[in-house]
Write a structure and sequence with these properties.
alpha+beta; 4 helices
Amino acid sequence: MRIHDKVYGNTDEEYQAICDFLNVLSTQDPFMHWESGRMNYWRYTIHAKKNPYDRVFSDNVHLWQADNQDVVGLCLSEYGGNDMFIEVLLEYRHLYPDMFHWIDTAWARQKSLWVH
């Protein structure tokens, strides 16, 4: 199955796909940093007053999806600052280089504290 990456658009469908991904990941990795409850808090508390199309979403969340639209990897900055969480299903660990490349060439390039 092919994997493609995409910018997060903050749609309800993408949000649900991320929650489903995090629920599956929680059964594989008890030490994961995110879970669906934290995703709920992120969307409906921290960023609840933002326009759903605010750039904080597209600039700070990136998805890796299978052809069937299942999320298999996720990079997410909780506050849009200089923090980044990386979550990936165990069978897709080969995506780490691609994820680090996105962090370095797209996400981190926007950060004023990042040394280029």
